[in-house]
Write a structure and sequence with these properties.
Layout: E1 2-9, E2 14-19, E3 31-36, E4 44-49, E5 52-57, H1 63-76, E6 85-93, E7 104-105, H2 108-116, H3 124-138, E8 144-148, H4 158-161, H5 167-173, H6 182-196, E9 204-210, E10 214-220, E11 223-227, H7 249-256, H8 262-271, H9 274-279, H10 284-292, H11 296-320, E12 325-329, H12 330-335, H13 337-343, H14 356-359, E13 367-368, E14 377-380, H15 385-397
Parallel strand pairs: 1-6, 6-8, 9-12, 12-14
Antiparallel strand pairs: 1-2, 2-3, 3-4, 4-5, 7-8, 9-10, 10-11, 13-14
The chain binds adenosine monophosphate.
Catalytic activity: acetate + ATP = acetyl phosphate + ADP
Main location: cytoplasm
Pfam families: Acetate_kinase
């Protein structure tokens, strides 16, 4: 069985999954887990496999050591790299800039190109590079493939991709919309035509990826024509802890009048805003529990979130001209019945009718939740970015 190892590296953490890319999307991965607190005095490796969870605690100086500890733990449980056939390693890379529209096999040259993009993603790309280098050290004979979070949005038309700011400054500093969560938007949007019985070449759709981070895309015949995240993943709809779109003048105000530093404002907008900034919680299960207690801050956070979401859905309906499907995915989108109902409430005049019973069914797989008479089909399609990355990795490794 040809397996792919999928890695998502952060600056001090490394998430991994060992996946059979030919498996059904509902199958759990063969193994998954997390390396935490890399470079700190104490670290931990967690491995989940066969329904069990194993943890090893020890200092982990770097990503390569973390990965070798993962492999030792896998070997103890019969799924080490010498016991199974890992044919490719897929790396999630956050920023591909204008350089990458497609996944690529990683060479020294490619790695240098990813390095060149660090100014666009100063927190994410360095961590991704360290993870790639660590994994290549441990698995030197296996092809490594980079899959870019921005790739699917490389084809955005200029009117959607460019901001109306000074063109010289924008060009000199790479200021434009890149979009993120591309692997998820692509994976989900590719499944929709078959689910609604349409030709992919004639399907216009909106995908709502609502997780802790959240983004919406408009997809016209398989190609993204707009998306809510921008030059950075801070833009767009309200998120768990991120503000989404705000008046850029707020940044100047907070700096000049409130005396906040740029780093403080960065933290405020990325980590202390969004649903959490209004209600104190970012998990929608907690938010719902607070709403049920009639907590006014929770209601306000929910209403702001839904208002924003509806504005984006409405603008993409106009951008697409005709909409065949609206699909919800990711943690909130797949599980939160109320968010889906509120997002599309009272839109019958636009041919959008959610069926309350279908909407309330548990998250067991891809499904239609609109009524049979709804002109616009509404769906829930669970995302699986790791499986998408695994499939790309094995496909490119075989070429
Ligand atoms: P993600 O970023 O896609 O992993 O989504 C994580 C978020 O999904 C969490 O912060 C929760 O807000 C939300 N979530 C997960 N499970 C549920 C659920 N059963 N009901 C409502 N929201 C959920």
């Amino acid at each position: 069985m040809a397996l792919a190892l999928v890695l998502n590296s952060g600056s001090s953490s490394l998430k991994f999954q060992l996946i059979d890319p030919s498996a059904d999307a509902t199958q759990p991965p063969l193994a998954s887990g997390l390396v935490e607190q890399i470079g700190e005095p104490s670290g931990a490796v967690t491995l989940k496999t066969g329904g069990e969870k194993y943890t090893v605690s020890a200092p982990i100086p770097d990503h390569a050591v973390g990965l070798s500890m993962v492999f030792d733990l896998m070997t103890e449980h019969g799924i080490g790299p010498s016991q199974v056939e890992i044919t490719a390693v897929g790396h999630r890379v956050v920023h591909g800039g204008l350089l990458f529209s497609q996944p690529v096999v990683i060479t020294d040259e490619i790695l240098n190109m990813v390095r060149d993009l660090i100014p666009l993603a100063p927190l994410h790309n360095p961590a991704n590079i360290v993870g790639i280098e660590g994994a290549m050290e441990i698995l030197p004979d296996v092809p490594h493939v980079a899959v870019f979070d921005t790739g699917f949005f490389h084809s955005l038309p200029p009117a959607a991709a460019l901001y109306a700011i000074n063109a010289e400054v924008a060009a000199a500093h790479g200021v434009r919309r890149y979009g993120f969560h591309g692997t998820s938007h692509e994976y989900v949007s590719q499944q929709v035509p078959a689910l609604i019985g349409r030709d992919p070449e004639h399907t216009r759709q909106i995908v709502c990826h609502l997780g802790n981070g959240a983004s919406i895309s408009a997809v016209h015949n398989g190609k993204a024509i707009d998306t809510s995240m921008g030059m950075t993943p801070l833009a767009g709809i309200v998120m768990g802890t991120r503000s989404g779109d705000i008046d850029p003048g707020i940044v100047f105000h907070l700096h000049r009048s409130a005396g906040m530093s740029i780093d403080e404002i960065d933290t405020l907008l990325n980590k202390k805003s969004g649903v959490k900034g209004i209600s104190g919680v970012n998990d929608f299960r907690e938010l719902r529990a607070m709403i049920e207690q009639d907590n006014q801050d929770a209601w306000l956070a929910y209403n702001i979130y839904i208002h924003n979401l509806r504005k984006y859905i409405g603008s993409y309906m106009i951008a697409l001209g005709r909409v065949d499907a609206i699909t919800f995915t990711a943690g909130v989108g797949e599980n939160d019945v109320d968010v889906r109902a509120s997002a599309l409430q009272d839109l019958e005049v636009f041919g959008i009718e959610i069926d309350p019973e279908r909407n309330a069914l548990p998250n067991t797989g891809p499904r239609i939740i609109s009524t049979d008479s709804s002109k616009v089909k509404v769906l829930v399609v669970p995302t699986n970015e790791e499986l998408a990355i695994a499939r790309y990795a094995v496909q490119l490794a075989g070429e």
